[in-house]
Amino acid sequence: MGRFLKFLPLLLFPISVISQNPSLSEASKISLLTCGSGDELYSSFGHTAFRVQDPVLDIDVVYNYGTFDFNRPNFYLNFTKGKMIYSLSRTTFERFLYEYELEKRWVREQIFDLDLSERNQLLAFFEENYRPENRDYPYDPLWNNCSSITGDILLEQFKGEIKFESPHLKKQFSFRQLVRQYLPYNTWASFGIDLAFGSVVDRKATVKEHMFMPDYAMYQIRNTTKNDKPLMERERVILDYSDLEKETFFPLSPVFWFSLFLIFVATITYLDNKHKARSRWLDFSLFFITGLVGTILFLLWVATDHTSTPKNYNILWAMPVNVVVAFILLFRPRLADWMPKYIWVLFGLLALTLILWATGVQSFSPVIILIFTALAIRYIYLLKYFKIQSP
Questions:
Q1: H, E, C per residue of the chain
Q2: d(CA 161, CA 285)
Q3: How far apart are CA 346 and CA 318, in angstroms?
Q4: What is the spatial distance between Cα 254 and Cα 185, in angstroms, rounded to a whole number?
């Protein structure tokens, strides 16, 4: 701690200089920093930030739009409601780089080809954004994050001069496809995100919208022009680490556990059929869990500000009404007369889900096929059991 306090004034010196709103020298540069992905979910997609450096004024700072605070009041409640607040932070380049060197994540820099007045214009913009009353902004993981804001800033500051070309895109991906590129499908994070995302993320992203991913923002800067000239002057590698390999331990994966779930449901159903019985606790569990999942997804659709969760057709197979039906199945030994019709409705909704998947209206996690199969097995048996119980 003593050494930190000793050198703290030196670390803060460049920031104190900037707070005086200086005019940059001819030796100054402004660049975009792109950082490789990390181990945590929030860092799986990489990161983007701006760097301002001027050796004459001894300035080398990073403006980072990806800062959030777990200690902010009602952080988790606001996260659930889709009202996340992120902030613009400012730190020395040395301190910014230390984190990525510690985690062995690569960092690349793209220096903009801007004249002195344009560099001063951008610096003034960053400093105005950094004022306490301006630094917070409503975060959106797909449409307004630390990376997508890059394109917004360039378009705003250089109106009519910026053009985003697209030779780097072999095809335009949907938002869901872009997210899946960074998360192996057989992980709980990927399954959970696919489950929560609605069909709104299955439309093709525009060329600019691809920039919500840091890698694609970096590719885009290589293919962006300003007044018909390349915006990027040059690119260099600052930290040269390999991309992190995201390995999954199969016994902890969704495919493993949902396969066990399928085998379990099939086994209990086989035994029920053999003994002409009905395991009420199994029916209760299946209907209650699917109903609870559907209720949560419905609330994410209609009761939050999340822009990526509306029109989520997972609620077709995870019917919220199943929560109520679960208790009826638990406390009544005999199936109600209306139950076969309800089961056929559930079958129809399963089929409709598959049709929406096949036609591209909404993409679902491949893992969900295991769940569909388990539900179909139990639904078929419930229809058979209704006939068994009838006199």
A1: CHHHHHHHHHHHHHHHHHCCCCCCCCCCEEEEEEECCCCCHHHCCCEEEEEEEECCCCEEEEEEEEECCCCCCCHHHHHHHCCCEEEEEEEEHHHHHHHHHHCCCCEEEEEECCCHHHHHHHHHHHHHHHCCCCCEEECECCCECCCHHHHHHHHHHCCCCEEECCCCCCCCCEHHHHHHCCCCCCCHHHHHHHHHCCHHHHCECCCHHHHHCHHHHHHHHHCEEECCEECEEEEEEEECCCCCCCCCCHHHCHHHHHHHHHHHHHHHHHHHHHHCCCCHHHHHHHHHHHHHHHHHHHHHHHCCCCCCCCCCHHHHCCCCCHHHHHHHHHHCCCCCCCHHHHHHHHHHHHHHHHHHHHCCCCCCCCCHHHHHHHHHHHHHHHHHHHHHHCC
A2: 59
A3: 9
A4: 9
Angle, CA 188 vertex, CA 241 and CA 321 arms, to 5°? 155
318: left (phi over 0), alpha (psi -120 to 50) or beta: beta
Q: What is the pLDDT of residues 127-170, one digit of tens each?
A: 999 999 999 999 999 999 999 999 999 999 999 999 999 999 98
Beta carbons of 37 and 243 less than 8 angstroms apart = yes
Cβ-based burial of 265 (10 A; exposed 0-12, middle 13-18, buried ≥19): buried
Q: Which two tokens stand for residue 302?
A: 């209609």
Under the phi-then-psi rule, with left for phi > 0, alpha for psi from -120 to 50, and beta for the rest, what region is 98?
A: alpha
The residue whose two tokens read 């078929």 is 380
Whether 274 contacts 291, CB under 8 Å: no
- Using one digit for the tens of pLDDT, what is the confidence trace for 133-145? 999 999 999 999 9
- Centroid of chain to Cα 276: 47
Residue 119, pLDDT score:
97
Write out the two tokens for 199: 């069909």
Q: Rounded CA gap, 338 and 353, in Å?
A: 23
pTM as predicted = 0.90
CA 223 from chain center: how many Å? Answer: 25
For residue 221, give both structure tokens.
């800067």
- Residue 361, class by beta-carbon neighbours within 10 Å (0-12 exposed, 13-18 middle, 19+ buried)? middle
Beta-sheet pairing, 224-226 with 229-230: antiparallel
